[in-house]
């Protein structure tokens, strides 16, 4: 029986072969996605381990004294170059037995540094006054891959003398380099929250694999009628229902095995490109995107097994008797109760507007339940909505195309919706996430590119960061060439406010002071109230702002301080024209005032760090949508083909009677475009509603319009899906040719 | 009304028509007979402008139609011709009455008017009460009569029928033929019916035989 | 079954002796009902009397001295008979069959004869169909009876047409 099944599967005529190919392709796609996700999870873990050594000094066991180990001074800081983070570690060995991180042969001595390959390349191409001057001495080597989270990581290990580092308040003596996963270390600050990424990758995997499963399910329906006729003929000559099930199962399993093998091929072919996608904010080493033996075994066994089960389930829809195929009764029309979970989800989220739960756990539960209810509600309500719209179309139709399409959709809205249900999930999740994140980021007043928040750099000299006994920098220490750097518009100095003002968080006055005469030179940073000589300001002349207020509109509170010039220098703020060259030159130059302090940065750069995770999530959502829209398109295309095959004869007869192929095209087009567009509209609407309710309830933010990028993504995805459907239309001409209508 | 002159047509290497000549007068009911594979359906397709012959010419109402482009021929089929085939012609999603109204809708008639006009045919073809049935809920004879109504509803000049009773038993088949002939006579519609059954051909005014891709006239001197 | 016309037809192939005629008749048309010698000679004598055959006497002894040769009149009678369709009625195959076989033997257009026959049959069927459509149930049923028989004939005609080549080989000498 199994042998016969194999023979039928591979040599069962053109239709069987076509089904085999489509199912195998669908399985290959699904397998490829699954493998990519598994490899992504593995790579995320590996990448995290590569971050581990950067937490040296933070984890307790790296600082405990050890016998036979000469401790090393260790100071880690985050610098930036052209919007990218640049990790800088200043080290100084106190003896020959100092701990050495992986990737470099020894700790660099004073005047030496090791650069990561990406930084090494930059140092060769970028003028020294923009980057190279930040690192004293000469490059003695390139940091090996073992110490790099990503091939693109910018890292530098700078050698210092132990005496210099010993005076720095943030430098630590370390006796070991951290090698454990940062996710497993409580105080680690650099690295990924591994669990979070695993969870989100799993969610994404589910969001990707759901449409693929639907695609596989749809593909098995291809020329199902012909296949069932064959099974009926076998029943007539004495095959038992059991044997038929075996045959069908063998057929699907052959396709699934072929597809799984292909899927591995797809994965390995796509791996280099996959590594380039910064899922975690940084690209992967292709060699990190690996599969464990358990992964491989689970996929290689699980997918064909799943396909076999799916085949058995699909066969349950029809009863194959020796006299032919009895289809299970036409599905009952979906009822309005399907709307209940969706409405309940909206109501639940709406309830919490103005009644925000006190605890974080309570909030999580409230919003998660609402979101899950809405998501499940959408999938449940989809067929009902499809039916309502289809009935509306059919009842109002004056044109035959709309009438036929509307009737078909109304007859089996489940089937029509099934093809696009993956899309609903993806669009809802993506819209809700993008809506919430866009608004959140916007409310956090991500500055415009030409705002001083993005164009000005601040170097602050916090007393607690200064080396013991060292003199704080003064106005005289401001590098002479700073004002002469091309693109620099103003150099402003901020003095220290009274100590108690600076430390009182409730006081809206900032920790700094500036004279109104100075401030007037740079109107972008706001203004003084009338009559004031000196105002209290923040060290970056921007400070925390109310939403919607630009820095230029700020009116700083007047201060009564008169001894401005004798006060300690708190910060230097340099306004540039916003060009990368000017900013990087200023950054390099400013850093010389306090070589071991926090490197200069703009307000926007600080913001970018805090919203980085959110942006990463948005990127993941984009990946989901980009992948699931075309898959949904494929499902649609396959169901178009199935629908065409069902109606081969009536359509070809209509064509013979002079009906334009254009009209048949519009039937097919409507049958697919209506559910696709209705569902997309509903999913987007629901996503925006969910995001809006969440923002109102949790943060009391209004929903901001989504960016052009989002619309481009959704629009592009929809166009791609419609394109895939359009690609099936030439088939219409072929299968409705005159020969089909011949009486045979 | 319709004339084919020395029409030749091959499907790849296989010649289907090898110089068929035939003329049908206005209002005439002509039966085209012949064994399977003789080319009789192909001849019908050429006469109806579905297929374009490789050689020879086809005229309708004194105008050549084999030289028209696909769009013009489609329009001709839609506006001047009606069709009835052996089986499987009804759009399964539509009710019987909507199937009949389909040609009218395609011609731009408003839905309400089209359905009303289509309904009138149900009475004439003994189909009363079946208007709202779907094609799956009709018997073979009923479905064939619905198809006949659809073929005639737009009052075509010529009705082409290809084995219209092919999937029916003789009594049901004759019922369909009876209605076809009376309706055609009533409207003055010219009919070309392809059949291999003598008893169906006997409903026609005249018959021709297609053999080996040629129309046999068989007039002895 | 028309014995005189069949014998005339056989004679048109070639002049024959009475014995040969009987043998050929029995082989193709007798089918278990051989023609008595007496009837053969009586028929031939009648044909000779009517001027449709002439007797060529050969020198020698015995009954087989007489050879029969068809005349112009006889030949045109055979021709007219072959061309003319039979009155469409049941149980005509034997006649029709004889005509077909003879036509093939004589290299006449047997297919055209059959087509003409078909035409006649269909014309009759059309008449019966009209009767059926216009008449009452009894008329209709009677017409159906005729129609089905005619249809059976037509099927035989169709089958024969499809196999004429094979039949021509079978009757070729």
UniProtKB/TrEMBL annotation, chain A:
Cross-referenced InterPro entries:
ABC3_permease_C (IPR003838)
Q: Where are the transmembrane segments?
A: 20-41, 196-223, 244-269, 289-315, 336-353, 365-386, 415-437, 623-645, 666-690, 710-732
Where in the cell is the protein located? Cell membrane
Which residues belong to any copy of the ABC3 transporter permease C-terminal domain?
203-317, 624-734
* Transmembrane helix in keyword set: yes
Stated membrane topology is: Multi-pass membrane protein
Q: What is this protein called?
A: ABC3 transporter permease C-terminal domain-containing protein
Pfam families recorded for this chain?
A: FtsX
- The primary site where this protein sits is membrane
Sorted keywords for this record are: Cell membrane, Membrane, Transmembrane, Transmembrane helix
Q: Does the keyword Cell membrane apply?
A: yes
UniProtKB/TrEMBL annotation, chain B:
User: What are the recorded GO MF terms, alphabetically?
Assistant: ATP binding
Statement: the UniProt record of this protein carries the keyword Repeat = no
InterPro entries associated with the record: AAA+_ATPase, ABC_transporter-like_ATP-bd, ABC_transporter-like_CS, ABC_transpr_LolD-like, MacB-like_ATP-bd, P-loop_NTPase
Q: Which domain of life is it from?
A: Bacteria
Matching entries from Pfam families are given as: ABC_tran (PF00005)
User: Is-annotated flag, keyword Mitochondrion?
Assistant: no
Which SUPFAM superfamilies does the protein's record reference?
P-loop containing nucleoside triphosphate hydrolases (SSF52540)
> Which spans are transmembrane here?
none
What CDD domains does the annotation carry? ABC_MJ0796_LolCDE_FtsE
Q: Which residues form the ABC transporter domain?
A: 2-221
* Keywords assigned: ATP-binding, Nucleotide-binding, Transport
- PANTHER family reported for this sequence: ABC TRANSPORTER RELATED, IMPORT ATP-BINDING PROTEIN
Mind telling me what this protein is named? ABC transporter ATP-binding protein
Recorded source organism is: Asanoa iriomotensis
């Amino acid at each position: 029986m199994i042998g016969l099944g194999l023979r039928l599967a591979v040599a069962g005529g053109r239709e069987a072969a076509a089904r085999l190919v489509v199912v195998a392709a669908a399985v290959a796609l699904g397998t490829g996605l699954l493998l990519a996700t598994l490899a992504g999870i593995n790579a995320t873990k590996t990448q995290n381990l590569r971050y581990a050594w950067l937490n040296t000094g933070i984890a307790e066991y790296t600082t405990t004294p050890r016998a036979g180990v000469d401790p090393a001074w260790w100071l880690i800081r985050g610098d930036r170059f052209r919007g990218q983070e640049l990790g800088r570690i200043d080290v100084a060995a106190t003896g020959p037995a100092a701990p050495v991180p992986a990737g470099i042969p020894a700790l660099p001595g004073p005047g030496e540094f090791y650069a990561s390959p990406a930084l090494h390349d930059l140092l060769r191409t970028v003028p020294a006054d923009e980057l190279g001057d930040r690192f004293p001495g000469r490059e003695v080597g390139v940091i090996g891959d073992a110490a790099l989270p990503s091939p693109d990581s910018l890292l530098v290990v700078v050698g210092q003398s132990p005496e210099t580092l010993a005076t720095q308040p943030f430098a630590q003596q370390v006796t070991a380099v951290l090698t454990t996963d940062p996710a497993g270390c409580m105080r680690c600050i650099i690295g990924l929250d591994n669990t979070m990424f695993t969870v989100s990758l799993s969610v994404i995997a589910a969001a990707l694999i759901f449409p693929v499963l639907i695609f596989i399910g749809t593909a098995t329906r291809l020329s199902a009628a012909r296949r069932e006729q064959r099974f009926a003929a076998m029943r007539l000559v004495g095959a038992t229902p059991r044997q038929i099930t075996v045959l069908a199962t063998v057929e699907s399993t052959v396709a699934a095995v072929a597809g799984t093998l292909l899927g591995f091929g797809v994965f390995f072919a796509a791996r280099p490109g996959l590594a380039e996608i910064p899922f975690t904010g940084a690209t992967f080493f292709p060699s990190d995107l690996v599969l464990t033996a358990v992964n491989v075994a689970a996929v290689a066994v699980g997918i064909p097994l799943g396909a076999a089960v799916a085949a058995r389930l699909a066969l349950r829809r029809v009863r194959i008797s020796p006299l032919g195929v009895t289809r299970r009764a036409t599905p009952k029309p979906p009822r309005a109760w399907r709307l209940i979970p969706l409405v309940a989800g909206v109501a639940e989220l709406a309830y919490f507007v103005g009644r925000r739960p006190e605890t974080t756990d309570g909030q999580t539960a409230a919003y998660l339940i609402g979101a899950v209810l809405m998501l499940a509600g959408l999938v449940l309500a989809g067929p009902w909505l499809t039916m309502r719209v289809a009935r509306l179309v059919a009842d109002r139709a004056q044109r035959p195309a709309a009438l036929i399409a509307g009737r078909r959709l109304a007859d089996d809205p489940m089937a029509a919706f099934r093809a696009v249900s993956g899309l609903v999930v993806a669009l809802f999740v993506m819209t809700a996430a993008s809506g919430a994140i866009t608004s959140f980021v916007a409310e956090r007043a991500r500055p415009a590119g030409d705002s001083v928040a993005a164009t000005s750099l601040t170097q602050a000299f916090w007393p607690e960061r200064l080396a013991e006994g060292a003199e704080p920098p003064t106005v005289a220490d401001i590098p002479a060439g700073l004002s002469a750097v091309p693109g620099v518009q103003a150099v402003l100095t901020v003095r220290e406010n009274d100590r108690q003002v600076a430390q009182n968080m409730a006081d809206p006055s900032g920790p700094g002071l500036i004279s109104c005469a100075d401030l007037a030179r740079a109107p972008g940073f706001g203004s003084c109230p009338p009559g004031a000589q000196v105002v209290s300001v923040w060290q970056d002349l921007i400070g925390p702002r109310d939403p919607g207020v630009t820095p230029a509109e700020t009116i700083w509170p007047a201060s009564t301080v008169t001894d401005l010039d004798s006060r300690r220098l708190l910060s230097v703020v340099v306004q540039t024209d916003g060009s990368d060259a000017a900013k990087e030159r200023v950054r390099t130059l400013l850093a010389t005032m306090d070589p071991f302090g926090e490197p200069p940065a703009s307000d926007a750069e600080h913001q970018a760090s805090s919203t980085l995770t959110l942006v990463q999530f948005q990127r993941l959502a984009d990946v989901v949508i980009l992948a699931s829209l075309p898959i949904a398109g494929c499902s649609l295309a396959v169901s178009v083909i199935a629908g065409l095959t069902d109606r081969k004869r009536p359509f070809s007869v209509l064509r013979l009677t002079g009906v334009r192929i254009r009209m048949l095209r519009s039937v097919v087009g409507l049958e697919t475009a209506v559910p696709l567009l209705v569902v997309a509209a509903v999913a987007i609407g629901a996503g925006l509603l969910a995001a809006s309710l969440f923002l109102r309830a949790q943060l009391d933010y209004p929903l901001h319009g989504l960016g052009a990028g989002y619309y481009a993504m959704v629009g592009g995805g929809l166009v791609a899906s419609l394109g895939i459907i359009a690609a099936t239309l030439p088939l219409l001409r072929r299968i409705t040719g005159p020969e089909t209508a011949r009486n045979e | 009304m319709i004339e084919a002159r020395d029409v030749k047509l091959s499907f790849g290497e296989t010649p289907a028509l090898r110089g068929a000549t035939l003329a049908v007068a206005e209002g005439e009911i002509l039966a085209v007979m012949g064994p399977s594979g003789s080319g009789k359906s192909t001849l019908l397709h050429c006469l109806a402008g579905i297929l374009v012959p490789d050689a020879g010419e086809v005229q309708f109402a004194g105008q050549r139609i084999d030289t028209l482009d696909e769009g013009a021929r489609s329009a001709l089929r839609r506006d001047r011709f009606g069709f009835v085939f052996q089986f499987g012609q009804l759009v399964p999603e539509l009710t019987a009455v909507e199937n009949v109204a389909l040609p009218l809708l395609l011609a731009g008639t408003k839905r309400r008017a089209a359905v009303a006009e289509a309904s009138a045919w149900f009475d004439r073809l003994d189909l009363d009460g079946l208007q709202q049935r779907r094609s799956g809920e009709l018997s073979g004879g009923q479905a064939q009569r619905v198809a006949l109504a659809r073929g005639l509803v737009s009052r075509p000049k010529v009705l082409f029928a290809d084995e219209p009773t092919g999937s029916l038993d003789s009594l049901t088949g004759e019922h369909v033929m009876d209605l076809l002939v009376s309706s055609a006579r009533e409207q003055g519609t010219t009919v070309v019916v392809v059949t291999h059954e003598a008893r169906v051909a006997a409903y026609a005014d005249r018959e021709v035989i297609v053999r080996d891709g040629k129309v046999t006239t068989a007039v002895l001197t | 079954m028309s014995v005189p016309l069949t014998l005339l037809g056989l004679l048109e192939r070639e002049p024959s002796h009475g014995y040969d005629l009987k043998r050929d008749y029995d082989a193709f048309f007798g089918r278990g009902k051989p023609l008595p010698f007496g009837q053969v000679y009586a028929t031939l004598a009648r044909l000779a009397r009517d001027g449709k055959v002439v007797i060529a006497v050969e020198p020698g002894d015995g009954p087989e001295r007489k050879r029969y040769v068809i005349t112009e009149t006889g030949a045109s009678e055979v021709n007219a008979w072959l061309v003319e369709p039979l009155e469409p009625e049941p149980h005509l195959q034997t006649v029709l069959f004889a005509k077909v076989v003879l036509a093939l033997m004589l290299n006449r257009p047997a297919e055209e004869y059959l087509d003409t026959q078909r035409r006649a049959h269909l014309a009759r069927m059309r008449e019966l169909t009209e009767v059926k459509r216009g008449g009452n149930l009894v008329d209709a049923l009677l017409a159906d009876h005729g129609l089905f028989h005619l249809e059976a004939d037509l099927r035989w005609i169709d089958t024969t047409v499809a196999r004429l080549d094979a039949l021509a080989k079978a009757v070729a000498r």
